[in-house]
Design brief:
Strand order of the largest sheet of chain B: 1-2
Strand order of the largest sheet of chain A: 1-2
Strand content of chain A: under 5%
Structural class of chain B: mainly alpha
Radius of gyration of chain A: 23 Å
Number of strands of chain A: 2
Largest interface: A-B, 69 and 69 residues
Shape of chain A: globular
Shape of chain B: globular
Number of domains of chain A: 1
Order of helices and strands of chain A: HHEEHHHHHHHHHHHHHHHHHHHH
Oligomer: heterodimer
Largest sheet of chain B: 2 strands, antiparallel
Helix content of chain A: over 70%
């Protein structure tokens, strides 16, 4: 019941908020709904069975019996943390919008987004997954298109076109896959072994949708503008939650369903991931608009996550997953702060700032704190994921890992430059006094400040529950299947035998 | 008495309280940070003495705990104390415990760090008095101390790295402490970025170590050291040395340290002279078992060390800012330490680290006291004759000068520097047979330069006539006792600190060397065809060289001013290059920085973002819009296209299922 509640409550909340006659209660109502959802979602953690690698909290009802489509939900160690991250961040995002937005549509969109994201994460039926996946676009469309900045229209068109393009290809592949297995049930599909050439095309078709969402370099064309133009809350939803669904999709569908293709493409994807990591970092050093700096740094960090996932080792996968959670937490904090700053200053241009640490010490401290996590200061959230990914990437390809360490230098370069331009230097006399964070803002940042340190010092809390599921649902699928009888498998066996012979007679 | 011993039995014979050494400053930082933020929000007003009490209390308490532990550890120094605090990261084979280890090396370091830090904390009360950032200052200072202690206590490379990054971060905060001044904020930024370049090397080293040994724990690494071949060990050592060079300001990454003088002077004393900048030396000494496997890497370290020593000393000759002279002197002395660890004489490197920590902290604090007395003046051309006006400070500075110049045997850096010189000469180099002699000559010449520039400094500051502003002169006053006493304590300390390592060659006990020796893993040092009897003679030689430096400088700057002027005129070209600091900053600006910026601008922005991603999308957008327009000529394309997709998708879905 709990998962349905987590999907249904925000959905009902979104409806209620948009239909409720008294607009004044919008804020409180939406916040209340999201808070209740968060409290319910804690039940997922407390009742989570660590020894069970498969789906838990399962529910299944017929949706379209004629087509075999079910409403089937369940979560495992992979989706658990992403669901919790979502339910944790949404109340904070809502709270963060109180200063700028009064329209009910804004709050309804965010709740709708929550329902769609949790739905997509929890679906164990591919049709249901696609439904929720596409549903995410609608609130995102409104958030950027209606409440965005100056170039919101252009940003929205780009965003929608990019993601639609990917989704369409995924739909085709999804239909093929379900047709082949004659079921929409994820577990059944995951157990099916597809022919190699089918894997190749399906991997690309599914992959394109997810790689655009992540985004993998060079498919990131939608990101800078969408992040910059969206309102703070929208950017948080995009960067901290929605792009993680891209990575989730890779982990849930691309890699375990099409392991042969995944392994074949892995070297190229790792190269693109590192290219994106460097490209994002370099672009971030050039920006004068600080939200763009954060946007490109987000791109850079996503490269690291993809790098981790495609090492196919438990450490790399856990590192990538941990980095998703960490990135979600500190990026949410930084973008929320960006929203608070623009409310005060009315601009994202770094040249319009300066000396803020003098005027707003609490804001500056919070920013520095989250920045410490973003630059990968050990003890904060970013570091552990980073080192796990790098260590396992090094074992796959040492050169790539060493190159990606450059990102470590650049992140300090652009973030400390940003901090210096905004918070340090003299306070200009012309600028009107800027007020420090108010109680609401401190309250909403506090959980994020705590969590980035908690992740940094106690990563095992997060790593342990995902371990079994990653092992069983991803790594096991990558091992060559015993039933494989095609030419390649024979070759492999012959090779192995030859190696054994060599070992006997050196 | 019996009761006390009982107490000691339950606390100190077990290492259960090791965490306290690091935790006390952390607690202090948290308390002060919280109070400072509250008072910034005007929730409450915090009196400065409260901040001072918390910070100094934390530091001193940490010193007392360290001292007590060190004493009881010393009784049985063969078994290190280990405390596993918690399981930090566990992912498949990647397993890191957050654990501390007190062994001979970390024990000495902990006592040294907390002692110097406590004195500097006390001094800061006077120096930072009336500064509006008083609470913030002490928060950072305590946080720094915490990180530094984690760095030396960490039993694991990853824990060490936590401290390593922590000290760098605190250094950033403290260099840019007076951040209203853009130049100071920039200096902080420069420090952290250059440090990060080094840290990238450190991370590369981490990756390689883990790939080979599957652990970061020092003891496990030591046990598995056979996994390192000469090639891999060399690579690892070079990677870690990049990290060390960044943190310890060696060529080519030293450029941040002189700029770091923008921070408050006690910070320069603590972080940029005594403790943080020596972390690189500590790292190399801690990983000695890998470094001895890599003669190429060790040789490179020795060469870079001695060149840095020489290079920085020549720049120090012409600096006119009192703190800059000391900063370049620090870079130079760190070069000595790397020379020591580079010739695999880790004890001598650590020995010099400690003596240098004492006298350089003393010199910086005294310089701070001078600056304080002169209301912020740092230009030594505007000083002179201060001896009679600020006698206590002058005395402290002179003690530091005696210690650094090496003009009084047994005092300060005399033995430690000499030990390094001796080892440099006596350790044979497996790659370049003549290298020891070259290293020795350069190092000896550097000690001449050291004596020269330090004497020039004291003559210009404390002797002769006052050359500064009248107005400042009238308000000239000695600093308060809270400042002068720590200066004197460190000054007197640096007079005696050399006694912990009197070389056996002249009948000394070399206590430190013997204490540390079991920890370092190079069993014997073959003499480089140099008789050990030579050591006392060489000691005499360096003594004379130091005096020569002092005498020349005194003659040029104290007695005959025409000499120094003539010198400056004859070598005006050289002087200009030295004053320009060999134009290294400019060189980097026009090569490395310009190159990265060009890549970012032309490849990332223009080629990829502009042409590739941008153009492609534009074409895509246009194609879709045209198709949509061609299909129907109503309204805007977007919503319609969206609906069309859904319809098409649904149609396809239905079609497929009907025909399956």
């Amino acid at each position: 019941m709990i998962l349905s509640l987590l999907i249904g409550l925000p959905l009902a909340g979104a409806l209620l908020v948009s239909l409720f006659p008294w607009e004044k209660t919008t804020k409180a109502l939406s916040f209340l709904v999201s808070l209740v959802v968060f409290i319910f979602s804690l039940g997922l953690y407390t009742q989570f069975d660590l020894s069970n690698a498969g789906f838990q909290f399962k529910e299944q009802y017929d949706l379209v019996p004629a087509l075999g489509i079910h409403y089937a939900v369940g979560i495992d160690g992979i989706s658990l943390w992403l669901v919790l991250l979502t339910t944790f961040l949404v109340p904070l995002v809502l709270l963060g919008g109180f200063g700028s937005f009064a329209q009910r549509g804004y709050y309804a969109s965010i709740l709708l987004m929550e329902a769609a994201v949790v739905g997509a994460l929890a679906s164990t039926d591919l049709f249901l997954f696609y439904l929720f996946w596409e549903l995410m676009l609608i609130p995102a469309f409104f958030l950027i298109g209606l409440w965005g900045g100056e170039n919101k229209v252009k940003a929205t068109i780009r965003f929608i076109l990019y993601t639609m393009f990917g989704s369409l290809l995924m739909l085709v592949a999804l239909l093929y896959v379900t047709h082949e297995v004659k079921s929409f049930d994820y577990v059944k599909i995951a157990d099916h072994i597809f022919a190699d050439d089918a894997q190749f095309w399906c991997f690309l078709a599914f992959g394109l949708a997810f790689f655009i969402k992540v985004p993998l370099f060079p498919l990131h064309g939608w990101l800078p503008e969408a992040y910059t133009e969206a309102p703070a809350g929208g950017t948080v939803l995009l960067s901290a939650i929605m792009v993680k669904l891209g990575a989730y999709g890779l982990l849930r569908f691309c890699i375990p369903l099409f392991p042969v293709a995944a392994k074949a493409f892995a070297p190229w994807i790792m190269i693109l991931a590192v290219a994106g990591l460097l490209h994002g970092a370099l672009m971030a050093t050039l920006q004068t608009n600080f939200k763009k700096v954060l946007a490109y740094s987000s791109l850079s960090h996503m490269g690291l996550i993809v790098l981790g996932l495609f090492t196919f080792s438990l450490t790399g996968l856990q590192g990538g997953m941990l980095q998703m959670i960490s990135h979600g937490a500190y990026m949410a904090g930084l973008f929320l702060l960006a929203g608070m700053m623009v409310e005060r200053r009315g601009s994202y241009e770094m040249s319009d700032f300066g000396g803020w640490a003098r005027q707003t010490p609490v804001l500056a401290t919070a920013f520095l704190w989250l920045m410490a996590a973003a630059v990968g200061l050990p003890g904060f959230a970013g570091f552990v994921g980073e080192i796990l990914v790098l260590v396992s990437a090094y074992q796959v390809n040492a050169v790539l890992a060493l190159i990606s360490i450059l990102g470590f230098i650049f992140s300090a370069w652009y973030l400390f430059n940003l901090y210096g331009k905004i918070f340090l230097g003299p306070v200009s006399a012309k600028k009107k006094t800027i007020v420090d964070l108010n109680a609401r803002e401190i309250l909403l940042l506090l959980p994020l400040l705590v969590i980035v340190v908690f992740i940094g010092l106690s990563p095992n809390f997060f790593l342990r529950p995902m371990e079994k599921s990653l092992q069983a649902n991803v790594i096991e699928k990558l091992k060559p299947a015993p039933a494989m009888t095609d030419f390649a498998a024979d070759q492999l066996r012959l090779q192995a035998d030859a190696d054994k012979e060599k070992g006997k007679h050196p | 008495m019996l009761k006390l011993e009982h107490f000691q039995n339950i606390t100190y014979t077990h290492s259960d309280w090791l965490w306290l050494i690091a935790a006390l400053p952390l607690l202090g930082a948290f308390l002060n940070g919280f109070l400072t933020l509250l008072s910034a929000r005007k929730v409450l007003t915090v009196k400065p003495w409260v901040n001072a009490l918390i910070a100094c209390g934390a530091s001193i308490a940490s010193f007392i705990v360290s001292w007590e532990m060190f004493l009881s550890f010393k009784k049985a120094p063969d078994s290190p104390w280990v405390q596993d605090l918690f399981n930090w990261v566990e992912s498949a084979a990647f397993h890191v415990n957050f654990s501390f280890e007190l062994n001979a090396l970390s024990g000495v370091m902990v006592v040294f760090i907390t002692f110097v830090a406590s004195l500097i904390h006390l001094y800061s009360i006077g120096y930072m008095k009336n500064d509006e950032g008083f609470g913030r200052y002490f928060t950072y200072l305590n946080l720094f101390l915490f990180s530094m202690l984690v760095l030396v206590l960490g039993q694991d490379l990853l824990v060490l790295f936590l401290g390593w990054e922590g000290v760098g971060f605190c250094s950033y905060l403290l260099i840019g402490f007076w951040f209203d001044d853009v130049a100071k904020a920039e200096a902080g930024k420069k420090a952290i970025i250059v440090n990060r370049i080094g840290d990238a090397g450190f991370v590369a080293g981490l990756l390689m170590v883990f790939a080979l040994a599957g652990t970061f724990n020092f003891n496990e690494l030591l046990a598995h050291k056979q996994v390192f071949t000469e090639t891999t060990a060399t690579l690892i050592c070079l990677f870690f040395f990049i990290g060390a060079a960044g943190k310890s300001a060696q060529i080519p990454l030293y450029i941040w340290l002189p700029d770091a003088m923008a921070g408050p002077t006690p910070v320069s004393a603590l972080i940029h002279a005594a403790t943080m900048v020596t972390a690189g030396v500590y790292l190399v000494a801690r990983l000695d078992f890998i470094y001895v496997l890599a003669p190429w890497a060790s040789t490179l370290i020795a060469v870079i060390g001695v060149l840095t020593a020489l290079f920085a000393a020549t720049i120090a000759l012409v600096q006119t800012d009192i703190k800059k002279v000391l900063a370049y002197s620090t870079v130079s002395q760190l070069g000595y330490m790397f020379l020591g660890v580079g010739v695999t004489s880790y004890e001598s490197g650590i020995f010099h680290l400690i003596t240098h920590g004492f006298f350089k902290a003393c010199l910086f604090l005294a310089a701070g006291s001078v600056i304080h007395s002169l209301r912020g003046e740092q230009d030594i051309r505007k000083m002179g004759g201060l001896l009679k006006h600020i006698p206590m400070t002058s005395l402290g500075f002179l003690l530091g000068w005696i210690a650094i110049a090496g003009i009084l045997p047994t005092c300060g850096g005399f033995f430690s520097k000499d030990e390094i010189l001796w080892r440099a000469l006596a350790t044979p180099n497996p790659i370049f047979p003549l290298l020891p002699e070259v290293l020795y000559v350069i190092a000896l010449f550097t000690s001449f330069l050291t004596a020269f520039y330090m004497t020039r400094l004291i003559v210009m500051v404390f002797f002769g006539d006052y050359r500064g502003d009248r107005e400042v002169y009238e308000h000239l006053h000695e600093s308060p006792r809270i400042m002068t006493w720590p200066v004197l304590a460190l000054g007197i300390g640096s007079m005696f600190i050399g006694w912990i390592g009197v070389p056996t060659a002249i009948g000394g006990a070399d206590e430190l060397g013997k204490f540390l020796d079991p920890l370092f893993h190079l069993s014997t040092l073959d003499a480089n065809g140099v008789s050990p009897k030579l050591e006392p003679i060489l000691m005499l030689l360096s003594f004379l060289v130091a005096w020569a430096g002092v005498a020349l400088a005194w003659y040029a700057y104290g007695f005959k001013h025409s000499v120094s002027k003539n010198l400056a005129q004859t070598f005006s070209g050289v002087k200009k290059v030295l004053e320009g600091k060999y134009y290294v900053d400019e060189f980097y600006q026009h090569t490395v920085v310009a190159f990265v910026k060009a890549i970012a601008r032309w490849v990332s922005q223009w080629l990829i973002e502009g042409l590739f991603v941008g153009r492609l999308v534009e074409l895509g957008v246009q194609a879709v819009t045209r198709t949509a327009q061609a299909a129907k000529q109503v309204q805007s394309g977007l919503v319609r296209a969206y609906l069309a997709y859904i319809a098409a998708g649904a149609a396809l879905l239905i079609y497929l299922f009907l025909h399956s």
